[in-house]
Amino acid sequence: MGVVVEPGVPPEIAGMLRANAPLLTRIRSGWVPPVSAPAPRRRSPSSVALLAATPVVLGLMAWLLDTPAAPAGFVLLGAFMLVVLIKTTTMGELPEYDRPYERGVYEQARLHHGRFLLPVDFDEEARAVLSRAQRAIGGVLRSHVNAEGLLDGARNGVLLPEQEWEIARLLAKLSALRSEHRELLGRGVAPEVAAVVEPLERALATSEAAVVARVEVLERYARHVADAERAYHAREQIEELRARLPRYEELLAESGADALSVPEIERLAQDADQLESVLRRSVSSAHEAFRYLEG
Description:
The chain has about 300 residues and is mainly alpha-helical. The chain is about 75% helix and about 5% strand. It has helices at about 10-20, 20-30, 45-65, 70-90, 100-110, 125-140, 145, 155-185, 190-255, 265, 270-295, and strands at about 5, 40-45, 95, 115. The protein is flat, with a radius of gyration of 35 Å.
């Protein structure tokens, strides 16, 4: 599982947050990126090397002046000095590394504090429940029957992300309370406190059961959608086969084997009608299950 973002966060910001779980975890722990400002500059390695080599080259030029190769030495010296001049004036400095993207994520995390949840916000039990909810929601939203408008795609696109956020919010709260409760029990509980601890544990268990019940409604809806999806694809395949029937019939007639035409081919139309009915029933069941989500 990754970052869960409240549906009201703008899509581009939500995408940024979902893509930066490790960075957001560091920010949550107190890390602050450097403030974007004119970055200090440093000389490029090539410029530094050229400047360091200058005394050596000048010594070599002085030696060449006392030899027959003096004219070539002047040409070499001029070329070298031209390179040094270019490197130190136009390419001599490079900006130090800056972190504008990390700063941008940090600012959005501050601006939308409380509107996203990280994997570290959930204990192991909560992560398992949230993963179930996300699988159910993903199965519905990615289905062809949803994309083709056989379900209420617009309401799915609004209600299901809201359900994911609400389930995640409750699970994060439950995880925090469970962690505090376990820490308290780990320190040992006096007999006088034990009577109070038991009702608190029941409250945690009852709250978890209520969240799981929400997830089970989502899973039931997703199963109905999966049934409709299977019927949808089967119907498409049957229709494709029906379109090819004339070619099969033509082949049988030309081969003189039309008397051997199998009855299964003739049942294609009936199968298509039956699948259409199955699809309608599956979609109807999915709509019925959807109404429980709105309750």
